[in-house]
Write a structure and sequence with these properties.
It contains 17 helices and four strands. The protein is mainly alpha-helical.
Length: 408
C-alpha cells in the first residue's frame, strides 16, 4: 500500500504529470493519429487470411506501397511472421461487418498499456516499491528505443510491440510460477512473430541446465516442456514459408523489395555476414544525435540536435543502462541475462538490415526486456530503493527521447 498524504503531493506531482503526458501521446498517435493504410500490412494480411490467401489481395493498398514487400509468383507477401495477422483476424473481420477499417494502432494502444503493467508487476516481484515500479515501467516504455515503437503502429513496429509483450510475459512467469510449458508456449508465439527474438529462450534453457541442485531427470523434463510447443510452431512456420515461397527456410527476405544499396549488400554478402557487424555495432552502441547547423553558418538551428534514422546507441536512448558498467555483477541469473542479450545482439548485428526510418536501435527490442530485467535485478541488489538521481535520469531520458522522436 502507498501511504499518501496531501502534504506529500509534490513527490507524486512530476510522476502524475509525466504519466498524463505520455498517455496523451500514446492515445493521440495510436487512436487519433494520421492513418497510413499502406503501413497496415498485418491488417491487410489478416484480411487475406480471412479469404484463405497468404498474399495481399487484389486492390490492397499494400500492392502499391511495395517497400519491404516480398514478391513471388506475381504476388506480394509480407515477410514477417504471421502471428500479428492471426491476432488481428477477429478484429478485422468484426470491423468489416460494420464496413469499418481496423487499424493496428487500435490494438497497439492496449498492448502498450499491458506492457507497462507487466513491467511494473515484474518490478514488484523483484521487491521494488509501487512508485519505483511505475518509474521503471516509464524507463522501459518511454525511456528506451521502445518509445519509437509505441507511437507508430506500422507493421514492423507492431510486430515488435507483440514481441516485447511476449518476452515480458515469459519473464513474469519465470519470476512467478515458472511453468516451462507456458514459457515454451510464449516462445512458440515469439517464433511466429520475430525469429531473432526467439533466441532469447537461451536464457530460460541455460538457467536450469547449469543449476547444480536440479537433477538431470528434471532438466530433461524441463527441456521437453519448454521445447514442445516451439517445435510445433516451427513446423507451422516451415509450412507457412513452403506454401508461400516453395522452401521451408525462406521467409521472403531474399526477395524483399528494399533500397538499392541494401539489396546490393544482401545480394553480395547474404542475410547474415560478419561484414555487417562493424556498421551495426556503431549504430547500436556508439552513434549519438548529430547537431543541426544553419545552412549559412555553424550556428545551431532548430531542432539543434537530430537522431539519425539508422539508429542511436542504446546507451543514448536508455542511459540508465550505463549503471551496469559501474557495479560488480555476482548474480548468476543476471550474468546469464546479460550473456543471452549479448548473444542475441551479435546475431542481430550480423544481419544486413537492422531497420530504417526508426528511432534508436529498434531491433534491440529482441533482447531489451532481458537486458532491462538484468538492470532491475542489479540495481535492487545494490540499492534498497530508487535514488533521486535515477528517477531524474529516467525523466530526462524520456523527455529527450520524445524530443528526438518528434524531430526525426
Amino acid at each position: 500500500m502507498i501511504n499518501f498524504k496531501v502534504k506529500d503531493i509534490y513527490k507524486f506531482a512530476p510522476l502524475i504529470f509525466l504519466l498524463s503526458l505520455l498517455l496523451s501521446l500514446l492515445f493521440d498517435n495510436n487512436i487519433l493519429g494520421e492513418f497510413y493504410v499502406a503501413n497496415q500490412q498485418f491488417s491487410e494480411l489478416a484480411n487475406s487470411f480471412l479469404h484463405a490467401k497468404l498474399y495481399f489481395l487484389e486492390g490492397s493498398p499494400c500492392n502499391n506501397y511495395l517497400t519491404d514487400n516480398a514478391i513471388f509468383n506475381n504476388h506480394y507477401f509480407w515477410p514477417l511472421g504471421p502471428l500479428p495477422a492471426l491476432i488481428l483476424m477477429p478484429f478485422v473481420g468484426l470491423f468489416q461487418f460494420f464496413e469499418l477499417y481496423f487499424r493496428q494502432g487500435y490494438l497497439n494502444f492496449f498492448l502498450v498499456l499491458s506492457i507497462f503493467y507487466l513491467i511494473s508487476k515484474i518490478a514488484r516481484q523483484l521487491k521494488f516499491s509501487a512508485i519505483d515500479s511505475v518509474y521503471l515501467a516509464i524507463a522501459f516504455v518511454f525511456g528506451s528505443m521502445f518509445a519509437g515503437v509505441i507511437i507508430n503502429s506500422a507493421s514492423s513496429y507492431f510486430a515488435h510491440t507483440i514481441t516485447v509483450l511476449l518476452l515480458f510475459l515469459a519473464l513474469q512467469e519465470y519470476f512467478g510460477r515458472k511453468r516451462y510449458l507456458l514459457i515454451g508456449l510464449l516462445f512458440g508465439l515469439i517464433l511466429l512473430t520475430r525469429v531473432t527474438a526467439f533466441l532469447a529462450i537461451v536464457f530460460f534453457v541455460l538457467d536450469f541446465l547449469i543449476e547444480k541442485d536440479i537433477k538431470w531427470k528434471i532438466k530433461i523434463q524441463n527441456i521437453i516442456k519448454i521445447s514442445l510447443i516451439p517445435t510445433f510452431c516451427l513446423i507451422l512456420l516451415f509450412a507457412y514459408n513452403y506454401t508461400r515461397f516453395g522452401h521451408p527456410l525462406d521467409q521472403g527476405y531474399n526477395s524483399q523489395i528494399l533500397a538499392k544499396v541494401l539489396m546490393r549488400d544482401r545480394n553480395n554478402y547474404g542475410l547474415f555476414n560478419l561484414k555487417y557487424l562493424p556498421r551495426n555495432a556503431y549504430y547500436s552502441l556508439i552513434n549519438l544525435p548529430k547537431p543541426v547547423y544553419n545552412t549559412d553558418s555553424r550556428l545551431l538551428s532548430y531542432p539543434y540536435i537530430k537522431a539519425e534514422r539508422w539508429g542511436l546507441s542504446i546507451f543514448m536512448t536508455s542511459p540508465y543502462l550505463l549503471y551496469l558498467f559501474f557495479v560488480k555483477i555476482k548474480n548468476k541469473k543476471t550474468q546469464l541475462l546479460l550473456a543471452t542479450s549479448i548473444f542475441v545482439w551479435l546475431v542481430i548485428a550480423s544481419s544486413f538490415f537492422i531497420g530504417y526510418v526508426q528511432f534508436g536501435f529498434r531491433y534491440a527490442l529482441d533482447f531489451m526486456p532481458l537486458l532491462f530485467t538484468a538492470f532491475m535485478i542489479t540495481y535492487k541488489e545494490n540499492r534498497e530503493k530508487m535514488s533521486i538521481g535515477l528517477k531524474t535520469v529516467i525523466i530526462l531520458s524520456t523527455i529527450i527521447n520524445i524530443y528526438l522522436l518528434f524531430n526525426l
